[in-house]
Design brief:
Layout lengths: L1 H54 L20
């Protein structure tokens, strides 16, 4: 009976230790993923601004129409 009690206490302590270990490992990964998401959002905003800036540039004036005159005109 006492052996079964020690087994249950060991399982209880082991499960608490396992949960703590998993939460500590996962919290580091979660922070890394949050930082990655923030970096990608900043990059997206910068690219949007770049596209907007490039789209709003003044277009060059078109060339005037050239009058084409053939050099040798046959009569």
């Amino acid at each position: 009976m006492i052996d079964a009690l020690w087994v249950l206490v060991g399982i209880f302590i082991g499960s608490i230790g396992g949960i703590l270990t998993i939460s500590l490992v996962t919290s580091g990964k979660f922070d890394d993923l949050q930082n990655e998401i923030q970096d990608l959002r900043n990059q997206r905003n910068l690219l949007k601004e770049e596209i907007f800036r490039l789209d709003n540039q003044a277009k060059p004036k078109p060339r005037k129409k050239r009058n084409y005159r053939p050099k040798n005109k046959k009569k």
